[in-house]
Design a protein that fits this description.
The complex is a heterodimer of chains A (about 375) and B (about 150).
Chain A lengths: L5 E6 L6 H17 L3 E5 L10 H8 L3 E6 L3 H10 L5 E2 L41 E6 L6 H15 L3 E2 L10 E2 L8 E2 L5 E4 L9 E4 L1 H7 L10 E2 L12 E2 L9 H5 L5 E3 L5 E3 L11 H5 L5 E2 L6 H4 L11 E2 L9 H15 L25 H12 L2
Parallel strand pairs in A: 1-2, 1-3, 2-11, 3-5, 4-5
Antiparallel strand pairs in A: 6-7, 8-9, 9-10, 12-15, 13-14
Chain B lengths: L4 E5 L2 E5 L4 E3 L3 E6 L2 E6 L1 H7 L2 E6 L5 E3 L4 E7 L2 E6 L4 E6 L2 H4 L3 H4 L8 E4 L7 H23 L2
Antiparallel strand pairs in B: 1-2, 3-4, 4-5, 5-11, 6-8, 7-10, 8-9, 10-11
């Protein structure tokens, strides 16, 4: 019997859009009938609080995860991470843009950061050794696309199981192909190389306990777990992409509403999510590495889209029609929220780091001209 | 009114009427008393092409600051947020555009006006606007073309 350690979670769109609901139901039904994976349905990822039943459920899931939702993949990934649903990055063929951050093959990493590309981001903490795939349901209206992809993922991640006697547990251990598999490292994890050793093999480290939970005899026609969203309200708060965040702390300086804080190891954290003023995206503009986004903002770049959108061929004329610079815009937006709160507007006086303000002004030199030339190229 | 000034956008000739003033964000201004009527210049309309959708995000009779976002426009070729060209008070919007935004394409200098603003800001003369267009054309082309190469 093939082991099924794959769970598919469908995160429902907020509101009652019948087209979206239909797509969700279609996918859930087909998955349930085909037995490719366990299915559950939870409310909209962004709107669930950390202690919502839906989030508790997501955190309880072990094994590889495919999350389908109505947000950009990057947004889903980091919302899940923030709520403790972590794992290694699963590459879905549907997210063309996300695959730009390709993982280098990692050798026996257990619980390290989920991004093996050496970026300057501080990365996710304590990511367990399982794959998390995130797929945006807005990409395509056809359920077939998603079912095919989930089928492919299930193929890639499941392995044939053979019962080995004499181990004292009822768990089924995977046989990882023809090469040696009986290496066990000191923590009792089975490690093995399931592919020919031409330098491209990935090593899989299987946690016996997780397998037991995942493979514990659910049959193919089990009903999906459905957690409803009747008690879920629309929320608005920033999400940090830790693969880009450098912990520079500019956001915590800039936000005057106490949204940001630091965690136990001095990393930036979106602490008081609900302190954030609805609709205000100001902090995302001051982040020097664009690590902050607001998944429900109407501008794709602020909502966490990767690069340019595929299929979006319209020019954005905002720069020509008088748009302020991102910093100016952030200052205007923050002032707006301050005044709405009954506080005084501060303009650029507070929380905007001034670099090199201690140095005396010097006459322009070649480097200044070069920088201005580069700026005007507007790349 | 003397003959309109002409600016070439590539091979396209766009006209700058001399009976009114301009702001740098490609809108014309005609002031009567306290109120300045604002609309898109032909340059702007050329970049937009057919206007599909126009949406204002503030109410009439609202104070605005220079570069504050006041609305959105979507056309066949472009999208853009719209920003206040100066500090002042936005008094009223052109209601006719609600039902038919294509007036902007048909008659951008008269019936396709956008809104009326009361402001003390000093606009650009037609000659000054032409100079801005000429000075900025290289950069503008780069902005427009670079978006296709993303």
């Amino acid at each position: 019997m093939a082991g099924r350690s794959l769970t598919v979670v469908i995160s429902q769109a907020p509101g009652k859009n019948p087209v979206k609901r239909h797509l969700e139901e279609e996918i859930a039904l087909r998955l349930m009938l085909s037995g490719t994976a366990e299915v559950s349905v939870v409310p909209h990822l962004y709107d669930m609080t950390s202690d919502h039943t839906g989030m508790l459920w997501l955190r309880s899931l072990k094994g590889n995860l495919v999350v389908l939702g109505w947000l950009y993949p990057r947004a889903m990934r980091w919302i899940l991470d923030r709520h403790g649903v972590k794992g290694k990055v699963g590459e879905s063929k549907l997210n063309l843009a996300e695959n730009d951050d390709d993982d280098d093959d990692d050798e026996q990493r257990t619980g390290e950061t989920s991004d093996s590309v050496p970026s300057q981001g501080i990365g996710s903490l304590n990511a367990p050794n399982r794959l998390v795939y995130v797929i945006d349901l807005r990409d395509n209206p056809d359920p077939e696309t998603y079912l095919t992809e989930i089928g492919r993922i299930a193929e890639t991640t499941s392995v044939p199981l053979v019962q080995l006697t004499g181990l004292g547990t009822k768990s089924l251990l995977p046989v990882l192909g023809v090469n040696s598999l009986t290496n066990t490292d000191s923590t009792g994890h089975l490690t093995g190389h399931g592919l020919p050793s031409n330098g491209t093999s990935k090593s899989l480290s299987i946690d016996l306990a997780a397998l037991t939970t995942a493979g514990s005899g659910k049959d193919a026609t089990a009903f999906p777990t459905v957690i409803d969203g009747l008690d879920v309200r629309r929320r608005w708060y920033p999400v940090i992409d830790y693969s880009r965040c450098t912990n520079c702390m500019e956001c915590i300086d800039f936000c005057l509403f106490g949204v940001y804080g630091v965690d136990g190891v001095d990393r930036i954290l979106v602490e008081q999510q609900d302190n954030c003023k609805k609709g205000c995206p100001a902090c995302s503009r001051v982040c020097p590495v664009n690590a902050i986004f607001f998944p429900e903002h109407k501008t794709p770049a602020i909502a966490g889209a990767e690069g340019g959108l595929v299929g979006d061929f319209k020019i954005d004329l905002s720069k020509l029609f008088g748009a302020p610079s991102p910093l100016d815009m952030a200052i205007l937006e923050r002032d707006h929220e301050l005044v709405a709160d009954g506080r005084a507007a501060v303009g650029a006086a507070v929380g905007i780091p001034k670099r090199q303000c201690g140095q005396p002004a010097k006459p322009r030199d070649d480097l200044d001209d070069l920088m201005d030339g580069l700026d005007s190229l507007d790349l | 009114m003397s003959d309109p000034l002409v600016f070439m956008m590539g091979k396209f000739e766009t006209q700058i009427l001399t009976d009114r003033d301009y702001f740098e964000s490609h809108v014309w201004v005609q002031t009567t008393g306290d109120l300045s009527r604002i609309g898109f210049t032909s340059y702007a309309v050329r970049l937009l092409q057919d206007v599909y959708f126009l949406d204002w995000q503030i109410d009439p009779e609202t104070a605005v600051r220079h570069k504050q976002a006041i609305g959105e426009i979507e056309s066949s070729k472009a999208v853009s947020t719209l920003y206040a060209p100066a500090d002042g008070r936005l008094v009223r919007f052109n209601e006719a555009l609600q039902t038919d935004p294509s007036l902007i394409n048909v008659d951008n200098y008269e019936r396709g006006w956008l809104y009326e603003l009361s402001t003390t800001a000093v606009p650009l003369s037609p000659e000054q606007y032409l100079q801005k267009l000429e000075a900025g054309w290289e950069q503008t082309q780069r902005i427009l073309k670079s978006q296709f190469n993303e």
